Amino acid sequence: MKAIPALITGGIFLVTLSCTTRVNENITIVQRPDIESVNSFYTGSRSPLQAGSFIKLPIGSIKPKGWLRKELELQANGFHGHLEEISKYLQKENNAWLDPHGKGEHGWEEMPYWLKGYSNCAYILHDEKMIKEAESWFHAVLRNQREDGWFGPEHEKSGIATHLRGRADLWPNMVMLTCLQNYYEYSGNDSVLALMSKYFKYLQTYPDEKFLVGFWPRMRAGDMLYSTYWLFNRTGEKWLLDFAKKVHRNTARWDTGIVSWHNVNIAQAFGEPATYWMQSKDSADLRAAERNWQEVRRLYGQVPGGLFGGDENCRPGFTGPRQAIETCGIVEDMLSDEVLTRITGNPVWADRCENDAFNMLPAAFTPDMKALRYLTAPNMPQSDSMSKCPGINNCGPMFWMNPHRHRCCQHNSGQGWPYYAENLWYATPDNGVAAVFFSASEVKVKAGNGVEVSITEKTHYPFEEKIEFTIHPDTAVIFPLYLRIPGWCTNPALTINGKKVKLNGRPLSYIKIKRVFRKNDRIVLTLPMSLKVQKWEKNKNSVSVNYGPLTFSLKIKEDYVRKGGTAKWPAWEIFPASSWNYGLVLHEPYPEKSFQVVRKPWPDKDMPFTPENVPIEIRTKARKIPSWTLNRKGLIQRIPQSPVKTTEPEETVILIPMGATRIRISAFPVCKN
């Protein structure tokens, strides 16, 4: 039997892959899919690499629906879908990414950052105009590869925050490699494989002392490592494994601990050792990714929302819920979690990705996605254009909702929702299908002996508990279907064609249904949600309120005030038009009894991440804390130590999902009775 480390919050244990809990002859509870087989229809890990638990489906296989499709449509119609009208870095005249010799202006990370999200959004929505625009950039990059293998810019102007010039800076090309991989998965254009092979052969000639020099390339070369394995899995060129070793040994040593406290470096690179584990097969590499995640959260992540107080850089003493994360950090952390889900199969990474996606990402943009801000915090009752440093690490208007600023996040933020949509469903090594991230959608996938299967998923998750799957195979076919049980769910329920299945499901596992599937088979998975009050002892004994995967914030009336921008693409400040400085009054010793969950109708426009449209809210008692105010820069003061004594009367307040609040209190003081 083959065993690999399975990582869970708070520790590490070994689990045997064949160890399951049998419910009946068709249904078992498993820790991850069987990886002893090789999928017959989709490209997974090629020997001798360690097989991943899940295989990403080609772009276009999954059609998101409901609120997730709406987010993608808002993105396409918002600033990111029209960024070539706004950003000077996407102007085509004299652009180094389009020049046959890589000369010209604007040849750093901005264009490929944008292209990652823009192209995938276009492919998912089948937007022909956007696809044409994206492919004009892809075709230029493929056409302009130099004879020796180099591609992309090689101008002598340095990028932002780097002294590197010309071909010394490998970082922008790392981002473009990811874009090209997406393009290949959508189009099947073999020119991508040829370019990547020729480019890596060129880099193989670099001596180690000249390879991955400079800060950004060395910190983030895990992206190049993943690209190397991606290419090896499609071509089988064994020299690529030697090149992968070269990449890893010259990358910052994330396998030894946190090597940079820049928030995006952490979010993007903490999992690099687990990527290398596919080749090393050393369990220490797999454990290193979990250790990195835990260490960052121990020091700076004692707050709701799944992320951590990075601002620009994590700083000792700045660990409270007013510390923020870059929008770049949110989307890169989601991508790391998605990659680690595929590699390890551990459902804890999917839980962590959902925490980011539902509770942090929507709030980084205006509801119409026509503006964004650089930094978003769990507690930020005002989002204006005034500089908040030194309380916030970054000086400047980092809370300003402005589509014309926030350079890296402005371009990079678009990967969040498209990548999430592409990871809803996976193929598995045993010719099965897995629903790992839940959202209304339709997937078409080959399963079993090669029969094409269409599965429709109907749900309003994460705002409701029921998820309904309808199976439509071309003909009856046997294959395994995996359904994830989140870590917060202790009592999942399952019916198949209306018949209740006795299920001993456990958190952080999968329900494996292996049976002959026929047309219109119907499976209903129910994930009962319950209230949980989480105490943050390391942050003044503050508390947050969870319901299933959602964390809740105080509903504050939002006053949008126009501040700059253009008529088509305005910028906004957001001010509180109602009180925000509340502490909760909790029923002890059972604090969960302090809350009443109220369900509301689903919004007609599929926009649940707005205060006026949320389909669920929580009512509770609270008292104002008059001494808790904003400072002279409009930054919330540090959260007071709980319990807080206040003479203010009790009031009924409303809490709504954290992702729906652009100004918010999510970590609450507790009032002394």
SSE blueprint and pairings:
Elements: E1 3-8, E2 11-16, E3 20-22, E4 27-30, E5 55-56, E6 62-64, H1 66-77, H2 110-125, H3 128-143, H4 171-187, H5 191-204, H6 215-219, H7 222-235, H8 239-250, H9 263-269, H10 272-280, H11 283-300, E7 325-326, H12 327-344, H13 347-359, E8 375-376, H14 407-412, H15 416-422, E9 425-427, E10 433-435, E11 441-447, E12 451-459, E13 466-473, E14 477-485, E15 493-496, E16 499-501, E17 509-517, E18 521-526, E19 531-536, E20 542-547, E21 550-554, E22 558-565, E23 570-576, E24 582-584, E25 596-599, E26 616-624, E27 651-657
Parallel strand pairs: 10-14
Antiparallel strand pairs: 1-2, 3-4, 4-17, 5-9, 6-11, 7-8, 9-10, 11-12, 12-13, 13-18, 14-17, 15-16, 15-18, 19-20, 20-21, 21-27, 22-23, 24-26, 25-26, 26-27
Helix pairs in contact: 1-2, 2-3, 2-4, 2-15, 4-5, 4-7, 5-7, 7-8, 7-10, 9-12, 10-11, 12-13, 12-15
Question: What's the gist of this structure?
Answer:
With 673 residues, the chain is α+β, with helices and mostly antiparallel strands. It contains 15 helices and 27 strands. The longest helix is centred in the middle third of the chain and has 18 residues, at 283-300.
Question: Keyphrases for this structure?
Answer:
673 residues; alpha+beta; Immunoglobulin-like; seven-stranded mixed beta sheet; seven-stranded antiparallel beta sheet; 15 helices; 27 strands; 27% helix; 21% strand; globular
